[in-house]
Known about the structure:
Blueprint: H1 10-34, H2 41-45, H3 51-82, H4 90-100, H5 106-121, H6 127-157
Helix pairs in contact: 1-3, 1-6, 3-4, 3-5, 3-6, 5-6
Amino acid sequence: MSLLYLPEHAQAMLQSLDLARKEAEHLYYSQATLFALPIDLVWVQSLATQPVLAEKVEAFVSRFGRLQDHIRGKLLPRHAALVGEPAGTQLDTLAFAERLGLLNNADTFIAARGLRNALVHEYMHDAHIFLENLLAANPACEMFFNTIELVAKDLRRLGLSS
């Protein structure tokens, strides 16, 4: 008999996938409600006087960062451990995930980390940069959602499902 995964990592992997799915649900809600609005430079500049909209942006940015952190820091490393990949740097884990087909492009995922940082730090400083980063975060969400589904699909292939 040949093992497809290391059973001692199964529970942590399934818990990580479950948490990723829950976080993705919350991000999806924030994404859908935020990007249903007509976001442009005037809209971004008005955030200083629109606390309800500012709170919506802050919820999106927080959820975006939290899900990105979870995928990068827990979901993908736990998947690597599950299949016996030696522990390495975050770059090693992202390269592994790309080789396995869990990420379409590791560089794009790394760029999403830069988006997260810019969204947090440019929020009140430069409306132009913030707008660019906010608009770029929308497709990055889709990448996160896709990655979670690709991980779930691979777990099913391995015979491990939640």
